Amino acid sequence: MAQQDTDQQHAGVLPVDDEGFVIDTEDCEEREQAYRERGTSRPITVVGNPVLHKECKDVTEFDDELAGLVDDMFTSQRTAEGVGLAANQIGVDLKVFVYDCMDDEGTRHVGVVCNPKLVDLPAEKRRLDDSNEGCLSVPTAYAPLARPDYAEVTGQDEKGNPIKVRGTGYFARCLQHETDHLYGYLYIDRLSKRERKDALRQMAENEPRYPVVPND
């Protein structure tokens, strides 16, 4: 019986396909709702908050505290009507992000990645997409930003199991955007000075639609 419990503890949260990538497209509504119903919504930190501008700490404890954080992140993401959320966006200095994002084919993806690393892709897989990008931590601002339209991320799930996640189009952008967050980069850091200034102007001129943590 003890061995069975151990096996369950180390079982992956999501199944994987023949190439070892998580299958994050099944039971999306039920899984996201379960996280959300356990969680509490927290306000979003915005550009200028120090936690957003440094590399986060690795997740080393895959425990109830982490599970509670993940629940709160899904709840906060839904409150803010986002498609991805990194832990430092609710003020927590840990490398974990959650996502609830459609790809360009309209397929929904829901999952959790701890300690993510973007896979360096060969040139033939790097077709750039210069669509608009926004960020919950830069509320109401948008700017075009070229990113590869395919992305692969390695990391761990919330139980500590090794995982691989891949995405195309908008979902690929999400994976890159959220991984950037955990290494201290906002999307506006990848813009030209003029484009960054314009994004900050947009933010200053409008009110966010969700609770935020004001910077002192």
From TrEMBL:
<dbReference type="InterPro" id="IPR036821">
    <property type="entry name" value="Peptide_deformylase_sf"/>
</dbReference>
<keyword id="KW-0648">Protein biosynthesis</keyword>
<keyword id="KW-0479">Metal-binding</keyword>
<feature type="active site">
    <location>
        <position position="178"/>
    </location>
</feature>
<dbReference type="InterPro" id="IPR023635">
    <property type="entry name" value="Peptide_deformylase"/>
</dbReference>
<feature type="binding site">
    <location>
        <position position="135"/>
    </location>
    <ligand>
        <name>Fe cation</name>
    </ligand>
</feature>
<keyword id="KW-0378">Hydrolase</keyword>
<comment type="similarity">
    <text>Belongs to the polypeptide deformylase family.</text>
</comment>
<dbReference type="Pfam" id="PF01327">
    <property type="entry name" value="Pep_deformylase"/>
</dbReference>
<keyword id="KW-0408">Iron</keyword>
<feature type="binding site">
    <location>
        <position position="181"/>
    </location>
    <ligand>
        <name>Fe cation</name>
    </ligand>
</feature>
<feature type="binding site">
    <location>
        <position position="177"/>
    </location>
    <ligand>
        <name>Fe cation</name>
    </ligand>
</feature>
<protein>
    <recommendedName>
        <fullName>Peptide deformylase</fullName>
        <ecNumber>3.5.1.88</ecNumber>
    </recommendedName>
</protein>
<comment type="function">
    <text>Removes the formyl group from the N-terminal Met of newly synthesized proteins. Requires at least a dipeptide for an efficient rate of reaction. N-terminal L-methionine is a prerequisite for activity but the enzyme has broad specificity at other positions.</text>
</comment>
<dbReference type="GO" id="GO:0042586">
    <property type="term" value="F:peptide deformylase activity"/>
</dbReference>
